[in-house]
């Protein structure tokens, strides 16, 4: 069972990101503040849910949260400041956009930069422990997937509607065949050695 609150503060924001390991597209973060009696039968870490479940959850979270926000950090910025700092930046930007000021922040993972004067705690596998982080993971994932599916229409060779920019064999093969786009992260290892191994 996921827990509703970590800190005891009423306005506790959970935050998480999606797309850190991708070769293309933005990293997307969400921040969510949930009400005291929030519950949902299958809310969990977005990676444990089917795409259909995530799509069902998104409007439920958006309608029932006290506040939520989603932020995109684009590939150019990722190349400039690295993926870890971009993930944290996206989380900060999402918290910035919340309609309520968070009293406490809980973060999925073990890395975070302090946000203003608000206390925070990093929680490894937090998206499978706390509802607000799980809700943030669902929003971040669904918004990012939706964006990559739209992008697929302009760049069908890379099959982003399926792989969402992650380093699948097919994605790497498309990069070796067609080259890279403006949406690819130039500082990432876009090709594995095996892509060139024709023997």
Automatic annotation (TrEMBL):
Its EC number is 3.1.26.4. It is found in: Cytoplasm. Its cofactor is Mn(2+); Mg(2+). Residues 10-199 form the RNase H type-2 domain. Keywords: Cytoplasm, Endonuclease, Hydrolase, Manganese, Metal-binding, Nuclease. It comes from the Bacteria. Manganese or magnesium. Binds 1 divalent metal ion per monomer in the absence of substrate. May bind a second metal ion after substrate binding. PROSITE patterns: RNASE_H_2 (PS51975). This is Ribonuclease HII. It comes from Aureibaculum algae. The gene is rnhB.
